[in-house]
Amino acid sequence: MNGLPSSMRAPLDPELLRRRYGQVRRRSLALAEPLSDEDCTVQSMPDASPVKWHLAHTSWFFETFILERFEAGFRPFHPAFRVLFNSYYNGIGAKHPRAQRGLVTRPGMAAVRAYRLDVDARMLRLLDSRAGDAALAELVTLGLEHEQQHQELILADVKHLLAQNPLYPAYADTPPAPATAVPALSWQGFGGGIAGIGYAGDGFCFDNELPRHQQYVAPFALASRLVTNGEYLAFVDAGGYRDAALWLSEGWDQVCAGTLGHPLYWLRDQHGGWREFTLHGDHALDPALPVTHVSLYEADAYARWAGARLPTEAEWEVAAASGAGGLLQMAGHCWQWTSSSYAPYPGYAQQAGALGEYNGKFMINQYVLRGSSCATPEGHARASYRNFFPAGARWQFSGIRLAR
Amino acid sequence: MNGLPSSMRAPLDPELLRRRYGQVRRRSLALAEPLSDEDCTVQSMPDASPVKWHLAHTSWFFETFILERFEAGFRPFHPAFRVLFNSYYNGIGAKHPRAQRGLVTRPGMAAVRAYRLDVDARMLRLLDSRAGDAALAELVTLGLEHEQQHQELILADVKHLLAQNPLYPAYADTPPAPATAVPALSWQGFGGGIAGIGYAGDGFCFDNELPRHQQYVAPFALASRLVTNGEYLAFVDAGGYRDAALWLSEGWDQVCAGTLGHPLYWLRDQHGGWREFTLHGDHALDPALPVTHVSLYEADAYARWAGARLPTEAEWEVAAASGAGGLLQMAGHCWQWTSSSYAPYPGYAQQAGALGEYNGKFMINQYVLRGSSCATPEGHARASYRNFFPAGARWQFSGIRLAR
Amino acid sequence: MNGLPSSMRAPLDPELLRRRYGQVRRRSLALAEPLSDEDCTVQSMPDASPVKWHLAHTSWFFETFILERFEAGFRPFHPAFRVLFNSYYNGIGAKHPRAQRGLVTRPGMAAVRAYRLDVDARMLRLLDSRAGDAALAELVTLGLEHEQQHQELILADVKHLLAQNPLYPAYADTPPAPATAVPALSWQGFGGGIAGIGYAGDGFCFDNELPRHQQYVAPFALASRLVTNGEYLAFVDAGGYRDAALWLSEGWDQVCAGTLGHPLYWLRDQHGGWREFTLHGDHALDPALPVTHVSLYEADAYARWAGARLPTEAEWEVAAASGAGGLLQMAGHCWQWTSSSYAPYPGYAQQAGALGEYNGKFMINQYVLRGSSCATPEGHARASYRNFFPAGARWQFSGIRLAR
Amino acid sequence: MNGLPSSMRAPLDPELLRRRYGQVRRRSLALAEPLSDEDCTVQSMPDASPVKWHLAHTSWFFETFILERFEAGFRPFHPAFRVLFNSYYNGIGAKHPRAQRGLVTRPGMAAVRAYRLDVDARMLRLLDSRAGDAALAELVTLGLEHEQQHQELILADVKHLLAQNPLYPAYADTPPAPATAVPALSWQGFGGGIAGIGYAGDGFCFDNELPRHQQYVAPFALASRLVTNGEYLAFVDAGGYRDAALWLSEGWDQVCAGTLGHPLYWLRDQHGGWREFTLHGDHALDPALPVTHVSLYEADAYARWAGARLPTEAEWEVAAASGAGGLLQMAGHCWQWTSSSYAPYPGYAQQAGALGEYNGKFMINQYVLRGSSCATPEGHARASYRNFFPAGARWQFSGIRLAR
């Protein structure tokens, strides 16, 4: 581990790493392809960031944590970028305030593209000159996984931005994929006992998935698939948002304040029906698709209404690791809220230095989501992966899997 | 259990219950004895309540959940009190907004005293006429435990109110007890394994202590006593509030905003030294006393600085239940922050009806404190008792016990 | 003038001054008579103050500006009161934050009553020993006029406090006086020309009424009486609060935000009719009484709807000074919003020292009200009197007189 | 007047109007020339608007108030633009919320340029086909004057946006013009008497400059030039921001809150000296230039410190109309705060319809500035011109001229 926030026991083939570097970095730019420079500049809320910022910050990560350490005669692309594109690493020094990321119109997209090209050229030279350096390979892998996390954020943040536009423009011109038929929901049972929790492989994982440790899990059952829009609509129509008894107190406060009444991107049409804003523009709500963009409060209220509950993250991991064939939509559709607060595993050790800020300092007032979403890059997540957001966050692709 | 949020398997002797009713109810009034009617009326912040409100609400609890159900020909003392003194029970109907409790100057303290007398007379008649009624006895016991919780809140809330007064008036005229010598801090080790967690006796407990269940606990050690003011002062003097690496992100935000820089009631004297506001007025900071009125952020930062961590609530309970002789100050000094978020135990079932709102709906974004404090009524807490507050709360008597 | 914020050219008879001192000071206590100590302690919003604070601050005024200067061997009643009961005089030193006046439960009402007794005894001794001292007499007169201003505030602030109580308690047990018949509204015309504006007599006035100066006033007409509740109700029923064209932009923002929809103390009854909370409790809205507790936004919108406008303060003063017999309700009912912003008269000179803060520093973003209200002490106001509040203030007894 | 918010008695030559239309419209685009599309998209605060919005809204004005009324077979360029680019005209229907103007990334700058081209082509056709139509000419003139107002706002808003960028980018690459020597400040005296105030010519003016009317003005003197940076710096260095006695109460509150301590764009350099951010980037503070970007609070405090006061708007207009030769910098440098609140002139009549919202509804809690600034288009302002902003506004080019 070498004090790194990642685990990668087997050495990575240098050529593979080089190729993977190119693939991941190109995909970030590809995500910005359908967007104008103006789209890439604006910040729609403090929780979201401009696409331009994501593109720059992920390059800053390589420049700051790798080039500065390994490159001979290192000179920053632009001294001001060290501050402008630092997200939250106090150990690196000053950082530009998060809520003001959208006010920086210069450097513009052209300059950020140049920044990426420059970092890429230097990174590839470095990978050539130090092929086989394990410490470098670990850091590069971390940088790529980090960039993949931002790729998902790019899609969530762009969706939020476009949703603020009264014209509801589409990110992608293609129509959304038609939903296939919804299989009946069944319950997959699991016996209790002591389970190993946390990453057990020899590839990459984040530090928050470690150390692998034992937990006692009581017998439980997991729903075979995610809750659909149609099922959630039945909850809405049954007055789910009007019955205090279903809600956690904080969620009910939001309902009473009028800020919570349906999933984030649901829209009323003129006839009282529902539409949904998607990356493909707004469309009639598809009852067969998994409900998404719900808060933990909504997920919890729905589960209570349905006579069920949300899984703990240990239950989810036990089920996922079991390879139980009957479990559908565990990955690639929506992140799945668990009832577990985001906390360090027993024996968790934060590494020294700025990279130690990657995960540990956020382990408060956040809840774990498991699985992955339609916006998660291929191959990024795994059964032990821990995503986390505050209970009220809705702009991520978050959905509901029931347990009991 | 009868669907009640309490567990009390052994029948309670009717005469004992009657006597206990009188004792608990009298103690609430005794706590208000040193206060003027004006002191009892004012609300110092939305989180705190006026003493008058506490005195009325605890009576409302008996009137609403017991008299209304059991008393023949029930008529409320005053119809408006049903709304005025409802804390948060949506199932009961409307409630007066929490932040406006201090604006209700009428009914005044005289009327609230009359309310208490009336409820007490009716309750005692009821206890006489239905001696031996187990359902009644359970509810009365819950009402008394509930009142004891408010007795602790009365002291915390009054302390906060008086602290807003630039004259720093004392609640009690007596000087604070001199601290005894501080024993050296040692570490008490505990082996790992599957442990039974949750209430196991046959007396009263709250629903959140149930059901008793199994958890796997890894080996750990607990500090033999609480962190002292003197130790915490060393952390302050060493720049603990200036080192971002020690802090959870949310805590550091508060430090940067200038709202977190020392325990809540510490005051600078004119010579740069420290005083502390207490229920006995303000005094020179006593380095031998346990540090108190700290947030979870501060407790966590201190622990990190000290090369330790906070215990989980399971660890704390295992240690407390072990009766380990070397553990001092487990009860009666300060509530002890744990790193565990407040969540339902596996199999937790909220009862039907309004009393189901007692605990369950608050199980979000709160953290568990264990033990009890100098403000906790004698006999109220136990090893399985779960107190809970948001991570930033500081006006409770909350302190720090280290683990590792 | 001696640099005082008042004008009093004729010497005041010492015996008269002594008697007047007693009368004014007693009346303040009489206003608190129907109130409990609890009523006197609470602050219902930052703009309002506790009655106790008013009683203490008016005494502080005499102690600070008179006793401290004239009394041999002056010693303050309580050193902390200098800060606690300073309203806004930066020249005097620190002041307790306005929004926290309601948090100071000690000193209680008993102590404040003792403070008043002490100040009164010392003031009367001083008046005896320096009978005929013109500088003293001027300051005492200012202190008494100041106290009368606070007497009106006491009633406005108590009304606001009691209105927050869902039981709508009455300040006074007596029923409100029945309204007499409403005379038809007529228009009293005034020719234009250069007019003398400002105080012209030889009694007391505030510095903001000086210097008397010339203004050119165009011909205008003033309504013979105030707008009634019945007339204002017609505006409400006609959709006055739904027609943007009637409103100043800031007022319309409040309407859209849902915070402005009827006069402050109007209440809907269960049948869709209107009641009004008054110092006598809540009663059916009396259509014959002048509408009161309206903001300048509402007064202006009503005037526009009625095809009229609000008078300027110069017009109002010209009319009042003319003694025009046809003008009813110029004093003693409601303060009358004018369209004039509160600004210094040409040549206005603020006096040196802390008393210079009495008026001048508030001459920004406030609008002038003329006349006097049912809450104004007998003999306090006059034709040149300038009251002033922000355009949105509604808790004062403010009404509408039309002009054109 | 025809109910128009403008006065233009003499018919305008059609060819002149056509030429003027082209000039004004081209200048708006020229102002955007140094900016990237990204610069034009972002909104730096709710009070400011994106440049793109200004460019679209000024076209919307022509489309909505002229084309829709006069063009045969009118069809809007884009139906959604009616809402998107409506600033505040409730009479026109819905409007996009002001604070969210920066979230609309689509339409982008290319689409807005196309919108301008389309409106221009249609307007020019209309001007050809209805040459000599007086009603049309008046409206077109109003539209051009309106666009010129937005041209000044474009510069103020861009300056504010670029000032949020930690790199302090320059709007214009050229260096700022060197200040010429500062002439000694002298006082120009004016005798009192009845003066005619308001527009008296036969060209265009805004409705708020009408009707011309009489006011009595007492004798006064005006400073011969604006207050310089150097003079204001002396005020700062003398502790002007630390002396409560100099400040209006609202201004002092801002000082105490730490949000007011120097003119908006002054920056401390590393050696304790001052720099200033300008449209040419940041430069050492030039002591010879007029101080600018100050609030009315600061202007008033400076005047008090200097033993002077601010002029009333009537005084300013009397002086400007007098053509007094000794008065420098009356136009083209900074708008000059007056002590006059923005109020309707006696007899002011708002026109019917949506254009009536142009001025009247803002006549509350704003103060008048006279003159014009370096950002005001050539020929736009005049002696009777009334600019207005809230007392705390600082992002306009606002400065100080003393009176006494």
Enumerate the strands of the largest sheet of chain A in spatial order, edge to edge or round the barrel: 12-11-10-13
* Termini separation of chain A: 37 Å
The pLDDT mean of chain A sits at 94
Multimer state: homotetramer
How do the helices and strands follow one another from N- to C-terminus of chain A?
Answer: EHHHHHEEEEEHHEEEHHEEEE
CATH-wise, what's the superfamily of the largest domain in chain A?
paralog of FGE (formylglycine-generating enzyme)
CATH topology of the largest domain in chain A: paralog of FGE (formylglycine-generating enzyme)
Q: What CATH architecture of the largest domain in chain A would you give?
A: Alpha-Beta Complex
Estimate percent helicity of chain A. 25-40%
Most residues in contact, chain pair and counts = A-B, 35 and 35 residues
Number of strands of chain A: 13
| Residue windows where pLDDT falls under 50 for at least 5 positions of chain A | 1-5
Content-based structural category of chain A: alpha+beta
**How many domains, in number, for the residues of chain A?**
2
CATH level-1 class of the largest domain in chain A: Alpha Beta
State the major sheet of chain A. Answer: 4 strands, mixed
Radius of gyration of chain A: 22 Å
InterPro entries (chains A, B, C, D): CTDL_fold, DinB-like, DinB/YfiT-like, EgtB, Sulfatase_Mod_Factor_Kinase, SUMF_dom, SUMF_sf
Keywords (chains A, B, C, D): Iron, Oxidoreductase
Pathway (chains A, B, C, D): Amino-acid biosynthesis; ergothioneine biosynthesis
Protein name (chains A, B, C, D): Ergothioneine biosynthesis protein EgtB
